[in-house]
Design brief:
By secondary structure, the protein is an alpha+beta fold. About 25% of the residues lie in helices and about 35% in strands. β4, α3 and β5 (about 105-110) form a beta-alpha-beta unit. It is globular.
């Protein structure tokens, strides 16, 4: 299994994976729109020896109270059913966090399962006074600090990129 940054030829495989992994095509359409709008900050893929995409993590910009603080959201995250429970999702997330750290990003937010994300170092965003429009379950909205000063003066509403409005 190779974990790497996505390249152009991966688009069809990513689309197929997302359509297989979720109940609707909304996540696949989201990634297509983010890519078309130039809002895909980073995409990380897991491929097999033949180059088939078996895992994917997308990162896109968010704002805090309308201000760009060099933060991104992790969404969606998917691993093909045939290779789940092998640590691929964890490797995708860590590869993304490492790359984002190298690029100078300050923090990553995610709306996801605390049992998965907490062991990776994500903490409840509410503990930092942060929320998003979908955080009905406060525990699910989490944040990961990449820069030491990421949370200095950070409090309020996190807005995801416009293509995420499809989930309102």
């Amino acid at each position: 299994m190779l974990i790497r940054t996505e390249i152009g030829v991966d688009a069809a495989g990513i689309d197929s994976l997302l359509k297989r992994s979720f109940a609707t095509a909304a996540e696949a359409e989201l990634v297509q729109q983010l890519r078309e709008d130039g809002l895909l900050t980073l995409g990380v893929v897991a491929t097999d020896d033949e180059g088939q995409v078996l895992g994917y993590a997308a990162f896109s910009p968010v704002t805090l109270q309308g201000e760009d603080r060099n933060w991104v959201a992790l969404a969606p995250l998917a691993v093909d059913a045939s290779v789940r429970n092998q640590g691929i999702a964890k490797r995708l997330v860590y590869e993304g966090l490492d790359a984002l750290n190298e690029f100078g990003y300050s923090a990553v937010v995610v709306l996801g399962e605390p049992a998965f994300f907490s062991p990776l170092g994500f903490v409840p965003a509410a503990g930092h006074g942060l929320h998003c429009r979908w955080s009905g379950s406060e525990a699910a909205f989490q944040v990961y600090k990449l820069a030491d000063d990421a949370f200095v003066g950070a409090e309020g509403l996190i807005d995801f990129a416009p293509p995420f409005t499809r989930f309102d």
